[in-house]
Write a structure and sequence with these properties.
The structure holds 2 protein chains of 2 kinds.
Chain A (H helix, E strand, L loop, with lengths): L9 H9 L4 H22 L2 H17 L10 H20 L6 H6 L14 H20 L3 H12 L4 H8 L3 H18 L7
Helix pairs in contact in A: 1-2, 2-3, 2-4, 2-7, 3-4, 4-8, 7-9, 8-9
Chain B lengths: L5 H12 L5 H13 L1 H19 L8 H8 L10 H25 L5 H40 L1 H23 L4 H12 L1
Helix pairs in contact in B: 1-2, 1-3, 5-6, 6-7
Classes of the chains: A mainly alpha, B mainly alpha.
Amino acid sequence: MTRGTEQPTDEELVAAVLGGDQERFGDLIERYQARLVNYLFRLLRNADDAHDLAQEVLVKVYQVLDRYDPQYKFSTWLFRVAQNAAIDQIRRRRLKVVSLRQEDDEGENRDWDLPSPERGPYGDMRNRERGGAIQEAIDTLPWEYRELILLRHFGELPYEEIAKMKQMPLGTVKNKLFRGRQMLKEKLQDFLSD
Amino acid sequence: MSRPDHNTYREWLTLDADGMLDGGERALLDDHLASCADCRKERDETLALDALLQRSALPVRADFRESVMSALPTAGWEARSPRAWRFTAAVIVLLGALAAALMSAGSAPASSGLGTLAAVGGMLQAAVVAGAGLLGASWKGLGMVIDKVIASPVSLGAFGFLVLCLNLFLVSLIRRKRPVGAAARSRIGSKL
């Protein structure tokens, strides 16, 4: 175990949980909840679904924690499970990829409203517009770029872990992330100077 | 190190934003940025994009951790965890000690140590003999039932009919369609 003020590693926390200290699983949840929920939110486009699926994923992971192989990073394993679960859910529900703008006009599904310091009607409108534009920009990326962008920017996985998870050479991951970011920059040009 | 071309520098801007450049590459990039306005603009856009995506983060529900913790089921591995065994072992030792104390309370003071152990041993021996007797009786009873069944054609036929019904029931259980949710859950589980 780590000494002093150093945080225990994921692998140490997993070992503690398997040793009977269930509360340490709470530490793992704390460590990953924001990344996991945001990653799933960008895939499912709904905050409630993202929270529910994140919970389901964490419960599943807990149930099979003894099968975790410490030679791999815990985060790689967790996000692989999360991605599979999200893809299953999208297929199951046959999630319709409709225009966010269209949904916004109908006044439904305002999950992409972002927390922002901008106040007042103009600030709210701009904020909503920006949230919708980000989601739309992500949704229209080809999947091969989108999945890497989501893992990097919302899952906050390092390049090496993404390469291992997607079984790609590191150079390919670098290249795809560069291209994906270029596409996002083009689509979000209007918001980059905010 | 030879000087990279302009496109390589553009790729390096992204890698730099993610802390993926080594010291030498970083120094080369800084040199290039000092003389290339296009790359400076692109660097600013890259940083702005990262900030924009970061600002778009969805806040996690305040009770998320607690709700997950309270939803955790008893996992199969928990029964095999050392803590679970420690508890079981502690209960066995406690019961053993209690039994020994009770036995020794009724015996003579002089035979306290070895006498107690002998008493516990005797108790275990009696339990084993009783268990073996019960097992033998069960087998004997089963044998008698089988004798009765095959003794007459009517009881044999009734027994055959019962076995057939049981098989049909089992087949219907196996072939019954599973609910969609259960199938999906099992798919998620299989991917773990």
